[in-house]
Amino acid sequence: MSKYSIILGNLGNTCDRFLSSGYKDELPKETLLRQAAEIDGVTGVELVGTWDVTSENVEIVGDLLAKFNLKCVSIIPDHFSQKRWGRGCLAAKDPDIRKQALDYTYECIEMARKLKCETLNVWPGQDGYDYSLQSNLVQERRWLMEQIRELAESAPDIRFALEYKPKEPRNFSFMARASDTLLLAKETGLDNVGVCIDTGHAFVAGENVSESIVILQEYGRRLFHMHFNDNYGSWDDDMIVGSVHFPRYVEMLFWLKETNYDGWYSMDQYPYREDGQGALRESIEFLQMIENKLDDAVMEQIRELLREGNAVKSQRWLRKTFFKL
Amino acid sequence: MSKYSIILGNLGNTCDRFLSSGYKDELPKETLLRQAAEIDGVTGVELVGTWDVTSENVEIVGDLLAKFNLKCVSIIPDHFSQKRWGRGCLAAKDPDIRKQALDYTYECIEMARKLKCETLNVWPGQDGYDYSLQSNLVQERRWLMEQIRELAESAPDIRFALEYKPKEPRNFSFMARASDTLLLAKETGLDNVGVCIDTGHAFVAGENVSESIVILQEYGRRLFHMHFNDNYGSWDDDMIVGSVHFPRYVEMLFWLKETNYDGWYSMDQYPYREDGQGALRESIEFLQMIENKLDDAVMEQIRELLREGNAVKSQRWLRKTFFKL
Amino acid sequence: MSKYSIILGNLGNTCDRFLSSGYKDELPKETLLRQAAEIDGVTGVELVGTWDVTSENVEIVGDLLAKFNLKCVSIIPDHFSQKRWGRGCLAAKDPDIRKQALDYTYECIEMARKLKCETLNVWPGQDGYDYSLQSNLVQERRWLMEQIRELAESAPDIRFALEYKPKEPRNFSFMARASDTLLLAKETGLDNVGVCIDTGHAFVAGENVSESIVILQEYGRRLFHMHFNDNYGSWDDDMIVGSVHFPRYVEMLFWLKETNYDGWYSMDQYPYREDGQGALRESIEFLQMIENKLDDAVMEQIRELLREGNAVKSQRWLRKTFFKL
Amino acid sequence: MSKYSIILGNLGNTCDRFLSSGYKDELPKETLLRQAAEIDGVTGVELVGTWDVTSENVEIVGDLLAKFNLKCVSIIPDHFSQKRWGRGCLAAKDPDIRKQALDYTYECIEMARKLKCETLNVWPGQDGYDYSLQSNLVQERRWLMEQIRELAESAPDIRFALEYKPKEPRNFSFMARASDTLLLAKETGLDNVGVCIDTGHAFVAGENVSESIVILQEYGRRLFHMHFNDNYGSWDDDMIVGSVHFPRYVEMLFWLKETNYDGWYSMDQYPYREDGQGALRESIEFLQMIENKLDDAVMEQIRELLREGNAVKSQRWLRKTFFKL
Prior knowledge:
The structure is a homotetramer of 325-residue chains. The first copy, chain A, has 325 residues and is α/β, with parallel strands linked by helices. The first copy, chain A, folds into 2 domains: 3-294, Divalent-metal-dependent TIM barrel enzymes (TIM Barrel); 295-325, no CATH class. Helix content of chain A is 43%, strand content 14%. Chain A is built from 11 helices and 10 strands. Chain A has an 8-stranded parallel β-sheet with strand order 3-2-1-10-9-8-6-4. In chain A, strands 5-7 form a two-stranded antiparallel sheet. In chain A, strand 9 (223-228), helix 8 and strand 10 form a beta-alpha-beta unit. In chain A, helix 7 (209-218) runs parallel beside helix 8 (247-258). The longest helix of chain A has 20 residues, at 95-114. The radius of gyration of chain A is 19 Å and the shape is globular. The relative contact order of chain A is 0.12. At the A-D interface, helix 4, helix 5, helix 7, helix 8 and helix 10 of A face helix 4, helix 5, helix 7, helix 8 and helix 10 of D.
C-alpha cells in the first residue's frame, strides 16, 4: 500500500469569493492534526505557509507533528494568499515583489529543514495573467524559471515539486499543464526540480491524468508528488475522490505503480460544506479499495488489456473486477 | 427491470468528418437486427430514417422485426443526413425546405404506424445556426414550434419525443437544453409532445441529468424517452455507459424509478472503432447492474440520503453498496 | 441610448478563496458612490444586501444616493455571503433557514421601497447542490418556487428578476439556465417574476445570449434585467466587456433593441486586480460604441443579414461597420 | 505583410458524421486552385494527402500550381482519412500499420520534393485513444516519437511541423498541446522537427495562443507553422477568423512579429455551409486589418502596455486603436 497524506487545511475552514468568512468555524491547529492522525492510513500532512506554518510557529508545529506521529510531507509556500502577491509573486513585474517572493521561499526552505521535510510543493497561483495584452510572456516566464532555479540550486537537499493548474486565481497560469511545467523544470537543469500533479487541475486542463503521469516519468522521472481530488471537468471543484469519475482512477493507480512512483498519495480537497475528516477519509478509502486490487495478477491483466486496446473488454473487465454484480 | 432497446445504426458503420467512409464495413440490415436480438434484455430497436427505414422498405423492415421478435421503439426521422437539410430542416429559412421537412416527417408517421411504433424521436440536428448575426432567432424558433405542433396535432396517436443537444452539427441548436425544449413542447399545447433526454447531450449542456429528469417529469410528465451513453463532458463522445462516470448513473436510475418513468432505456452510442454489439451489451449490463440494486430497501436508503444531504455519507454508501471492498 | 448602471461592490474590494482578505483595500461607501456617479452615462447603481445596504443603514444610503443623483436600480438580497446560508437559503433543507431566508428577503423588499427601487435582483447562489445523491431535486426545487411565489405575491409593486448561473458557489445551481428559470418564473403564475441575464453566466451555460434574450422576451416578456461582463467561456471570470468577445455583443444589443427591452444595462464585474472605476467605464464605453451604431438604417441592415443567414456577409459587415480599416 | 496561404480542401466539400456525403458538391481541383489564387494576398496552398495530392497525380498538381502561380506551402500527409489508420497510424499497435504509415509518409516526402515544398505538416489525428485502459501510454508514445525521428532524420531537407489537437477524431490525441508536442520534437534531437499551432486547437486546449507561440519560440524556435481559424472554445468549430474573438488575435499577431516568426499565416477552416472562398478571404482580411496596424510605433505601444500590465489601459487602447468610435 502506498503512503497516504492530506493537506492540513482541508480539515479546517474553507471560504470562497462570496462567503469570505468561510462555511465553517476555525479549529485549533492541534484539533486539525489530531483529526489527520485519526484517519486510517494517513501518516503525513502537507502544511501551507501562513495558514499552517510560519517561521514563528515552526517549532510548535514540529512538536505537534511529533505528538501525533505525523510526517511533514511537504510545505506549500504561501505564494497566493497575501495581498502583496496579488499581481504576481515569483514572476511579478515589480522587482521588489520578486525579491520578497524569493526571500519568503527561502524562509519556507528553512522551515522545511526544521521539520525534516524534503519537499517544497510550489504552486505559484498568482503568477499568470487575466487579459490579452497584459503580460510580457517572454520576460515573465523567464523570471519564473530563474527564480525556481535560484531556489533549487541553493537547496539541493530539498525537492521542488511544481504544481500546475490552468487557471484560478489568474485566468491563465504560467504553470498551466503537465508538459509546460516539465519544460520549465528541465530548463532549470537541476534534478531536484519536478512536478506535482493535482488530479483535478489535470482534469480541468483536459489531460488524461494517466498520460500526464507517464509523460512526467518518461522524461527523467520528474513526477515528484500527487494531489488527489475529483471534479466535473470544467473547474477545480476539489471534491471527494470517486464522486464523479471511476475508471480514470484505476488507470492512474495502475500507471503510478507501473512507473514505480514512490511518492505520497496526498489528498487535496475543499470540503466547503462537508465534514472535512469524513471527506478525506472517504477519498483515501476509495483509492485504497482500488490499490488493494492491484496485485501482480491484476497488473498483468491490465497490461494485457493495454496491449489489446479493446475498449469493450476493458470496460467489462472493470465492471467485473470492481463492482458487485 | 426496465425495457431496454438500442438504436439500430449503433451496430453498423460509423464515420466522422475525417474518415467519411467510416471505420467499419457496412453490414446487411438483417445482420444488425440479429445482433440486436442477441443482446440479453434488448426487446426493442429505434430506426433512423434513410439509414434504416424508408417508405420503400418499411414492410421488409417490419417482417425482419417480427422475425427477430423486436419492437420498433421509435422512428428517428432523418432530419440531418440529407444535403437538402444542410442549412436547416423543420426551421429552414427556405419555405420550400420547411414544407419538404413537414412532408418527409408525415411519411415517417406513416412508417411508424405500419410498424406499430408509437413514438417519433425528433432530433432536428440541422435546425440552429453557427455564427453571430446569422439567424432570425424569433422567427426561426417560431417556425420550429409551429411545424412540431402541426405534425403532432395531425397525429394524436403518435408521441413526439423531442431530443435536445447543445451543438453539433450546428454550433448552436434551437433545441439545446431540457428546459428550452420543454418550453417548446408546452407551447404546442399538445399532450403528445414531450422530450427525449440523451445523457451525453445533457452532460455537454452542463446539466445534471437527474435534475433534467425531474424538471421534465414535474412539468407535466413530459419525459418521453431516454438515450444512454457516456462522455468526457465537453463533447458528445457517445461512449459505453459507465466508462467515464459512475455515481451520476445511480442517481439517474433512482430518479427515473422515483418519478415513475415507464418508457424505454435506449442505448445511443457511436462505437466508431469498437465491436458495436459488445459496446451496447456492456452498456446495458452496466445499467442493469445498478437497476438490480434498486429494490425497495435501497430506494428508501437513497431517499434518506437525499433528505440528509450529507455528501460524505452518500459517497460512502455508494462505495459500500456497489463496489467489492 | 439605454440606461446604464453598475453594481456598487464592483468598485470596492474583491476577494477569492485563496486571498480571502481581498486584492484591494476597503473604501468608504461614499467614495464608491462618488466613483459610480463619475462614470459618464451611469445613472443608477445596484446594491447588494449586507455588503452595501441593510435595514440599519438604508436611510443613510438613500441620502447618499440622492447626493450623487443616482437611482437604486435593484437590491440584490444577500442570499450567499452569510454563514447561515452555507447549505442553502431559500431552498434550504432546514425549514428554519428557509423561514429566515424569507424574512430576510421581506426586509430587502422594505429597503427597496424606502429607496424607491422597483426591482429585487434575486440570485440564490447557495441554492443547489454539489454531489450526486445530495439533493431531493423535486422537493427542494418546489420550495424554491414556492418561496419566490410567496414573496412576489406579497409585493406586487416589486419586480423580481431571477438571476441564473450554472454553478458557483454550488457545483449545480437550481436556477442554472435561462429556460429553467423562465419555467420557474412562469410557474409562479405572477407577472412580477422574471429573469435577469448575466452575460457571463450565460456564456458559461453554453448559451448564445441573444437567443436567451429572445426566449425570455417571446415567452411573455420576462427579461427583467441585464448584467454585462465577459469571460473565456468556461468560468464566470467577470471581465471587462469586449475583452474576449466582440460579435456576440453586437448581436445582443441588436436583440435587446429589437425586442424592445427597456430595462437597465448594468455592469457586473469582479475587477480583482484592476481599477474598478476604469474597468466599469471601459465596459460601458464599449457597449455604447456598439449602441451608437445601431440607428434605424443599421438595424435594418442587420435584419436583412438575419434574413439571408450568410455568415461570410455578416462577418464582413461586422468588420466594415465597426473596425477602422 | 506576412505570407498568407490556405488549405486547399477548405474550398471544397466538407462533411460531418451526420451528413457524410457533405454539405456541398465536389469541385474540380483546378477550380479550387483558381479560387485560391483569386483571394488577394494568397500566394501559397497546403495540400492534403489523398484528398488533394497523391504519388499518382503529383505532376499534374505541380503543373496546376505553376499555372496559378501558387507555392505548395506544405503537404499534410493523410494520416486520418483511410480506413487502415482507424485504430492508429504512426503509433498504431499493429506493427504492420506502423510500417505502412512510415512508407506512406516517405511517399509524401517525395511528393513534397517534387513540388519544391519544404514542409510536411504532420497531424497524426488517429494516434491516440478513446477509453481508460485502452492504450499502453509509454509504448505507443515512444513509437510515435521514433517514427517521427526516423522520418525527419532521413529527410533533413524537409521541415516537419507537428500539429497538435487535444481531441477529435480520438477522445485523446498523443499530440494534444503545444508543450507536449514540443517535448516530443525536442526528444528527436533533430532541428527539422517543430510544431504547428492551429489557433482553434489551442483554444480548445485552453491555451492562450500567444503564450503557446512564445513557449515554442523560446525553446529553440520550434514554431514552424500557423493555422488560423476561430471557435467558441470547447470544440474545433473551424470558423472564420474574428467571428468569435478579437483581442486574442491582436496579441497573437504581436507575438508572431515580436518573436520574428517568418513562416506562413495559413487559413484552416471547415466552411461546411458557407462559400469557402468568401470565408477564407474574410479571415485573411481580418488578420491583415490587424497586421496593417502593427507598425513600429504600435509595436512599441504594445510593449509598453505589457510592461505595465494594466488591463483597463490595454482594453481601452484596443478599442481606440481598432474600432471606429
